[in-house]
């Protein structure tokens, strides 16, 4: 065989092999749509980047209050995976046969804190003796929706535990999700707010003035599960990644805790 013909044939073989390899990678790579609680944004963005680099899958992360996400899934939104800030909402979806029960797993935990704008933060003890009305100095207390969003529900439970809720119930600025409540305080629109510790960790314009005792509300757990009829190998791989050591390390760095801690 002439040399030029051999080289041409070799090039054709290499091109064909490359095309097969690329096609094989494309067949394995999935586009994964993840619905996740707003409080998880910073940590989950980082985890997703690492997952994409290691697997070739692509993730689209949609953040909102858990109640909103659950209702969207109920209405048929094309999510592959849900990471919830509420055990109750995950229970609800499971009861409607909208998640894959055997895939359900708790990926991390959190705790509640009282925050103030950074230049106004003065440490206090969060207990029945807290003069919350005095600390608000005529302003409002920022919280996520207290009857629908997990962070708001936990916060209201803690206030009620210490008989503080009635004192401030008519002075709460309720936001659609916990990150919106965080923004009220960060922008100095409210003197105080109740958010997750991970939210306070993510926002340099606020400081924690009190850690809210975990026994004053239900344990904070973030369950994740595949959405029924929407899951694939990529979504399962991402769910497995969320429970691994790398993801756990990222959660910890962003102020999350062991589940329920």
TrEMBL record:
Which InterPro entries does this entry report, sorted A to Z?
ModA (IPR005950), ModA/WtpA (IPR050682)
Regarding protein family, the annotation reads: Belongs to the bacterial solute-binding protein ModA family.
- The molecule here is called Molybdate ABC transporter substrate-binding protein
Keyword check for Signal, yes or no. yes
- Entry keywords, A to Z: Metal-binding, Signal
Task: Report the Gene3D superfamilies cross-referenced here.
Answer: Periplasmic binding protein-like II
Q: Which residues form the signal peptide?
A: 1-29
- Organism whose genome encodes this protein: Thalassococcus lentus
């Amino acid at each position: 065989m002439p040399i030029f013909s051999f080289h041409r044939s070799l090039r054709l073989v290499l091109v064909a092999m490359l095309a097969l390899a690329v096609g094989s990678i494309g067949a394995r790579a999935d586009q994964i749509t993840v619905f996740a609680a707003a409080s998880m944004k910073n940590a989950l963005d980082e985890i997703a980047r690492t997952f994409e680099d290691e697997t070739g899958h692509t993730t689209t992360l949609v953040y909102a209050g858990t109640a909103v996400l659950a209702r969207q899934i109920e209405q048929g939104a094309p999510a592959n995976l849900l990471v919830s800030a509420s055990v109750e909402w995950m229970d609800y979806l499971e009861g409607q046969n909208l998640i894959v029960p055997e895939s359900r797993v708790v990926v991390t935990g959190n705790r509640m804190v009282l925050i103030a704008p950074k230049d106004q933060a003065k440490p206090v003890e969060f207990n029945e003796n807290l003069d919350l009305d005095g600390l608000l100095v005529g302003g409002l207390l920022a919280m996520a929706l207290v009857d629908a969003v997990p962070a708001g529900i936990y916060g209201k439970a803690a206030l009620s535990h210490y008989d503080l809720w009635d004192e401030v119930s008519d002075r709460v600025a309720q936001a659609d999700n916990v990150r919106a409540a965080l923004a009220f305080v960060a922008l100095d629109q409210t003197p105080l707010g109740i958010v997750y510790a991970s939210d306070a960790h993510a926002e340099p314009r606020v400081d924690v003035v009190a850690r809210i005792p975990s026994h004053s509300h239900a344990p904070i757990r973030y369950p994740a599960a595949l959405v029924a009829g929407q899951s694939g190998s990529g979504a399962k791989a991402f769910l497995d990644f969320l429970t691994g050591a790398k993801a756990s390390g990222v959660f910890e760095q962003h102020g999350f805790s062991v589940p329920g801690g």
